[in-house]
Amino acid sequence: MNCFACGPSHRGINRKSLKKIIDESPDTKTLASFANIRYRKFNRKRKHLVHDTAKLGKGKTSAKIFSYRELRTATQNFHPENLIGEGGFGRVYKGYLKNTNQVVAVKQLDRNGFQGNKEFLVEVLILSLLRHPNLVNLVGYCVEGDQRILVYEYMPNGSLEDHLLEQEEGRKSLDWSTRMKIAEGTAKGLQYLHEVANPRVIYRDLKASNILLDEHFNPKLSDFGLAKLGPTGDKTHISTSVMGTFGYCAPEYAQTGKLTTKSDVYSFGVLFLEIITGRRVIDTSRPSEEQNLIIWAQPLFQDISRFALLADPLLERNYPINGLYQALAIAAMCLQEEASRPLISHVATAIGFLAMQGDEDEENSTEEEDEEKEEGEEEEDDDDEGGKGGGSNGDKESDRVDEEKKIIGNEKANCI
Ligand SMILES: Nc1ncnc2c1ncn2[C@@H]1O[C@H](COP(=O)(O)OP(=O)(O)OP(=O)(O)O)[C@@H](O)[C@H]1O
Ligand SMILES: [Mg+2]
Known about the structure:
CATH superfamily of the largest domain: Transferase(Phosphotransferase) domain 1
Strand content: 5-15%
Bound molecules: adenosine-5'-triphosphate, magnesium ion
Largest sheet: 6 strands, mixed
Order of helices and strands: HHHEHEEEHEEHHEEEEEHEHHHHH
Shape: globular
CATH architecture of the largest domain: Orthogonal Bundle
Number of strands: 12
Number of helices: 13
CATH class of the largest domain: Mainly Alpha
Helix content: 40-55%
């Protein structure tokens, strides 16, 4: 799914406010100079682009400057067999850097594409200056002639979208505990941008295709081309043209162009609901009343006895019921009107508990299964006639229904 302006407002950058941010952030020279570059770019001083990028890159970051030739070699001349994805920016290839023995992802800007130089610069500078385990690592970039190429660490498990929403035949679907860990890591990445980076950064493009997964399914945010420096001083929002991906945009931002960190919290709520339900936020292949995930989920959110209908059928009911209800309550809170949305740090902490709970349940259920197995073996030894425990599935089912009823009773007070 490509990025596009998700509302009618298309005012472009507000030069005055950008200059103000720079002036008001004297301590944050590096990020301010990033804003300055953007300012200059908007003045169409394109010749400064290459120079400024190289200057900042060399002086303040570990990102390497690659020649086009090096990247051609790394990707076997951008061979179609090495193509791993394509988005609004251009094509992404798998590559190998012989010198450093490193596998990388090489993203080549499509010169006819609609995202461009501005996004390239913001991406290079944000990823060069900010570091966190839940942000993808930028290995380097290439600015040669009209080539604009970004080189990232290679993420062997691709994007969350690949695993959650574009299920390939034969691929195991993500289990509950992995889903909670991905949501927790994503929230921590946002927390770093909102609460640690100085000035704050508003990500603006949270969606499943921008969450990349390493070999252990740890999530990392990628694609910072639309990111914005957050408000400084006492200000609560910045005004900007409305950009992002349809469906993930917070309604107040889409309507007014008022961007706050809470806009990202809304997008997180949408993403978290996708993680729980396995449904795309906008899916035109579904019946009309189910095409918009948020509209479809709304009546179900109101009725706790129907909460289980919101769980991805691919989970095959393998989730802690309590965990499901709590996860839905968190998603619902993130989707509330702006003032009532929680801070992303609170969301990260709450989901952290759910991720731990998933682990404990797995451990317990493995222990229980072992015990059951042992007991079963003992019974088989003791009594050959009814030893296989034929009624156990039915018993488990009725236990589960009892458990659900109990939790529904307990949760009624907590949810929504
Ligand atoms: N560092 C990486 N490691 C592995 N795969 C990657 C990496 N970066 C991107 N990809 C793959 O390439 C795909 C396309 O990524 P890209 O960011 O260009 O587009 P997108 O996220 O689908 O759309 P948009 O342009 O709107 O962000 C991703 O979905 C992912 O599968
Ligand atoms: Mg992307």
